[in-house]
Amino acid sequence: MTKVGEFAALDLDELESRLEESRRELLNLRFQLATGQLDNSARINLIRRDVARILTLLREREIAEEEGTEVPFRPVPVARPRRARAGVDDEEEFVGTDEEFDDEVDEES
Predict the structure, then answer these.
(1) How many CA atoms lie within 13 A of 109 on its CB side?
(2) What angle separates helix 12-35 from helix 42-67, to the nearest 10 degrees?
(3) What is the pLDDT of residues 10-26, one digit of tens each?
């Protein structure tokens, strides 16, 4: 899946060629799905979203051109590191729970 910022950096010709490629790939994926040859069906949704993103950018540029304004700026998002959940330590161990369980099992036997 491609980010919107990556598509926004492309010029009009490149966007249109990407749109054509994505539509062709989507058609091939649909044929594979119909014939039972598709391994990853989630790929269809990813390509559909890419097509929608490209069409949205093309429409934004068309509107900006008609109005004589500048195309809206879309910065390329930077991946942020995942934060650890608060209060959870990876090194924490539960001590004594197995021993208590073993004692209960021994008493019942």
Answers:
(1) 6
(2) 150
(3) 888 999 999 999 999 99
Per residue in 59-100, pLDDT tens? 988 998 888 887 766 665 666 777 877 766 555 555 555 555
- 1-74: what CATH class? mainly alpha
The backbone torsions φ and ψ at residue 52, rounded to the nearest 5 degrees and listed phi first, read -65, -40
Segment 31-49, tens digit of pLDDT:
999 999 999 999 999 999 9
Quick one: which of 79, 69, 81, 29 has its CA closest to 51?
29
Contacts of residue 51, Cβ cutoff 8 Å, sequence gap at least 6: 19, 22, 23, 26
What six digits make up the tokens of 10? 């492309």
Determine contact, residues 27/98, Cβ cutoff 8 Å.
no
Q: Where are the alpha helices (DSSP H) in 36-96?
A: 42-67
> What are the structure tokens assigned to 99, written together?
């021993």
